[in-house]
## 1
Amino acid sequence: MTVQNHRTHLAGLAFALLLTACGTGVKLDEGAPVEDRTGTAVTGVPSGQPSSGAEAGRTSPTPPSTSQGTQVAPVTVTPSPTEPASPVGANLVFFDYDSFVIKPEFQLVVDAHARYLRANPGKRAVVEGHTDERGGREYNVALGQKRAEAVQRALGILGVESARVEAISFGKEKPAQAGQDEAAHARNRRAVIVVR
Amino acid sequence: MDLSFQLQQSRFLLSRRHALAAMAAWPVVPALAQFRVEVTGVGLTQLPLAVAPLRGETAGLPSVSAIVAADLERSGQFRLADTAGAPPLDELSRPDLAAWRQRGADSLVTGSINRLADGRMDVRFRLWDLVRGQDLGGQSYAVDAGELRLVAHRVADFVYEKLTGERGVFSSRIAYVTRVGGRHTVWVADSDGESPRSALVSPEPIISPTWSPNGQSLAYVSFESRKPVVFIHDVATGRRRLLANFRGSNSAPAWAPNGATVALTLSRDGGSQLFLMDATGGEPRRLETSSSIDTEPCFSPDGRWVYFVSDRGGSPQIYRIAVRGGTAERVSFDGTYNISPALSPDGRFMAFVSRSAGAFRLQLMELSSGTVTALTDTQHDESPSFAPNSRLIMYATQVQGREALMTTTVDGRIKTRLAGQAGDIREPAWGPFPNA
């Protein structure tokens, strides 16, 4: 049994255009698309040097895959050196839930770092803010930022100019302790003072 | 309806080529898409459709007919008729209309797959209106075996558009992030989560990937330099460019619809504040100055508004501000924690995440009326992202304690768990229509 000739014009010429990466789609009644390779093989990819920028030396794009349809050139980031421990000793400030207040027991940590930084004018510090795992990732970045800036301000009150202290946030992305209980949450709501 | 097809194991393998080699050694694989559809609610108006096995479909290659059926079912617009025991039909067969209608189908996809002399696969299909006995057209594709999945998605797009009058999204791409131990990977995959290709591997976290409007680049936040910085990453070439590496935290990138501007959150002047930047770089321009947390910007599809999250009222709520500046207007009113706004490309809806009684759930607001509907009953929903045709939302959640990516229809009735990777899977971002 044969198919009646279908005369309906293909509504979406767009469909044919969509096929650039995948061989060419052809209306059935126009016959087989045997050698039509229009639009395939757009893998003319440069050798993959990362563009300029501070991270340029740290990535290593590998050659692009041969897949024509949906090329994705994989990039690998090499690990950065791990941070040295603080020369001052304890460098963690823990926070209550939804709080940015430095509790008295952690004021000692801030004091010790302020003394060290005042005595070592060539040194700088980064304060990393962290949250527990509850809530959105980006909103937690902002909450962690608020914690880090609270410590930055506390160091400022003790005479460490804020230009020497960078406040940044990891949000909930780098928990110190796995787990969903309050003990884990409490360990993760923290700011870390890193001296460089 | 609750269908589970056989697990697709190729996702654990390194490359499509390896996957094909491995699958060739398998016994019969009736369906390759891992996929699970849950339907809740009644009164659905779905189009009854059958996708007959293509003549020549063999074990060892992705089953085009199964992928087409899975795509169309995931869209929520179709009810798939059982094809078990049906005779294989190709694009030249005239189907037995009465027999197929008895199976509950009003439309039918038939077709064939043949290996060409040069090794490529020739895929042909035809769509039938069984009620009118009418041929609705067909297409053919000659492709490498590795592209059969993409062909299947394009067949599904053809069928979807013919039968619903709207553009399908099945051949669009998604991005998402996995974490396995200390290894963080950005993947680019088909819209069903299959055929994942690694775009970036990093020892430090990566969050908030988002597609440029032309579908060529991802912007994301990487912690690889021990602080959050924003990259723009051309996925085809692997070229990366630091967009924002200012003092403090750099996060929450969002593309303007024109692709020329990126909104983002910077703390360089203290606090988390909204800025606009040219996508090519340069000096950030402040969108607003506040003493609150302002983050998670997202453009309206007309490019005139930036929706964002702010705690200026004491708890995180969604606001919007004109791109040219002005006074922010509050958009979300219910509850005390509303975050992660995503606007549908047609401008009708805003998806967001709301916390209620400790549960984080995906919500949908109809912007014209302000009516809010809860779309899920899960506990850990995150990161909603609309399909380019505004009909589906992809989001991250947890299922039985494991991270999962889901799609839901905008009425919340039809949900599908996407094929994924081992380990934690999160931060989905739905790309634009292909070749946009």
Note: The helical segments of chain B are 16-24, 64-74, 97-102, 148-164.
## 2
Amino acid sequence: MRAGRTSRNVIDEPMTAPVILVLEDDPGLRVLIARALQQNGFTVCQAGSGAEMWSNFEKRPIDLILLDIMLPGKNGIDLCREIRARSGVPIIFISARGDETDRVIGLELGADDYIAKPVGTRELIARVRAVLRRGPLERGTHTVRDERASFAGWEVDLRRRAVYSPSGASIDLTGAEFDLLASFIGSPQRVLGRERLIELSRVRLGDASDRSIDVLVSRLRRKLSSAGEPAPIVTVRGVGYMLTADVTHG
Amino acid sequence: MKLAPLSAIGRVFAVVALTAVIGLTANTLLYEGASRFSIREEEARRASEHIVVVARLLEGESAARRARIVEYTSTEHFKLDWRPGPIEPGEASRTLHEMHYQMVLWEPSLRGMNLRVHVGSPDDATEVIGSLQLSDGSWLHFRARDLIGEWQLERGQILIACLPMLALVLIAMTALRTILKPLRLLADAVTRVGHGDSIVLPEQGPGEFRRLIRAYNDMQARIAAMIKDRTEALAAVGHDLRTPLARLRLHVDTVTEAQTRNAVIRDLDEMEQMLDSLLTFFRGDTHAEKPQLVDLAVLAATVVDDLQDRGFDITYRGPEHCDASLRPVEFKRALSNLTNNACQYGTQVLVTLLADERAIRIRIEDDGPGVPPEDLHRVLEPFQRLDTARRRNTSGVGLGLTISSRVIADAGGKLTLSNRERQGLCAEIELPREPGPAMLCYEPAAH
């Protein structure tokens, strides 16, 4: 059995569409999620139960699983545990309960992200892309490990989408800001072109433009300043932005 | 004048007091009437016998002998005298008809002797004077003291009679207070019903009270169970509603006409907000989150940024960083409720964060219509919407401020609403800071 491709990069290899498995017991919602994903260039296979998921899982390689927590029979949390026992395939939880406990449990069990129902197409696609982008970079083994990165005293938990300041305080970022930060962390000390950033933010912001990227970067800078020190993000005039700090993973 | 209804103890006291007073009055009147009557009768008889005997002695005696006889027959309390004319009573002296009647009844021989009886003087009601005519036309005078019982003495008797009564009333009151105590406790408990804390009362007191208390305890349990059932049902519906909402959320992106799509998205946002606040409200005090160190300034800035992205004119002013220990998800919801409210009612919103050693203050000010002063305290209560006063498009179920207030109180802080001087509402969150070294607040860095 082969579960989860070990390497894939959405942006660099657009010709082969990533395969997303959607496990959702509500048929209407399942079809809608599938359609939204297909329209954004993903290949989708659908499952209405755990059994269906396993049969799909064995038929073809899966790049990501969207997993509903509330399922009849076996719940998503148990399924997540079973999947993790067999594979390191990225998992995104979808739950109708906007509950903090679900979120924590899901992430503890090795889910890569958690989305609360109801979710819009943009948010869904942005989250799927973000998880897929991280996928090949930090994964490879079948064991769960924290995906933490740190730079200049700042800690970033990519899986939990959490940021901690040098003083240890949790830093609340908007979805788009976090995605931007994740992009910087993915390519430290490399200039990220404006076009690339606009492309990344388009999913979330909808009408991403030069200006909205500048606003986004300035907000991120303000939130990542510390003790009077400016944030380690510099403007490369006419090109884009760059994270100047060293990033260490793990 | 309308009097407040008397308490049970008051009523019982009134009954006991009335009984006591009536009993006492009846007793006194009876006793007093009887004693005055008997005294009068006895004295009158003695006096009439005395004067009849002296009158007989005087008949046929010489004038000198008569003077000696009246002197001999006078006593300390009964003075006699012999005069040619009848006694002249003072102007204000009453004639004692009753005594006259008694005396004549006792000594019928007095009937033909022109007996006159008067009160001795208006000042001393106990002195009686009188006269009777002898057969030769001269008069025998008499002056008797203490013929009528003294009133003073009887007042003292009444007082003595009252004392045991008073003691009885006091004892009755004390006993009643004890008996009625469970009822008072029950009244207190019933007053508190619905204010969060339900108390199971111990069954005590008289049988009827025990039954009442048991009925109250049972009723309280039934109400609690009913509320729990309803809440759970409502929460379940809320959860279930999220699936169709999720479908709609995905459907809406297939709508090609931008105006319709945006309208539907706005409605969806509103429905989600309502569901969220309902579920949060019903979840109540069960904290899934643990307090942790949070950069409150960034949190406030992010809340503001989100609203800016949605097209609202909202600004954050304050330090770039300010750490505080609280439950981030809950607190963000509390703050969002306040900023959403401000954006809904005002066109321009300012969020200010001020921090000193003792407290962090977050002020959310809008330029909307504000809240009428008399309703300021009411808006924090659940399910309150001031549609009449704030006529702009109202949305939500009226739980936003309630939830905010509760979350802030849980964090040890305080939410205060006030109207701004010129226009609009100011909501201020005040969070006390624990003194310590971990108080980090940075001013904007110079770029």
Note: Confidence is low (pLDDT under 50) at residues 389-394, 436-440, 442-447 of chain B.
